[in-house]
Design a protein that fits this description.
This protein has 1 helix and 7 strands; from the N terminus they run αβββββββ. It is mainly β. The model has no long low-confidence stretch (mean pLDDT 78).
């Protein structure tokens, strides 16, 4: 798997996070605005797949892409469905 970038974060900051040396993991993980959309970042080395389940659309989970082999996943929730983003993640 090739190296990856996260919008708005320098690659050395991502490397520190994956290496366990980042001082503020919530700057990297969780929900973050990307323009009008919402990006949800999850680090779960034990997961094969992660789905984001929104309260207002539980029947339509959003698959997170595994963008780093050590277990970094990212899902984009587009503005049309992210007006009220509370929900849960489903890890398998």
């Amino acid at each position: 798997m090739k190296s990856f970038e996260i919008a708005g974060l320098p690659s050395d900051e991502v490397s520190r996070f994956v290496g366990g040396a980042h001082s503020d993991p919530f700057r990297v993980l969780g929900p973050h605005r990307g323009g009008d959309d919402l990006e949800i970042r999850v680090f779960r080395p034990d997961a094969r797949k992660i789905e984001i389940v929104l309260d207002q659309h539980p029947e339509e989970p959003i698959a997170a892409q595994k963008i780093q082999q050590d277990g970094f996943f990212c899902a984009t929730i587009f503005r049309t469905i992210s007006e009220s983003p509370p929900g849960t993640d489903r890890i398998t």
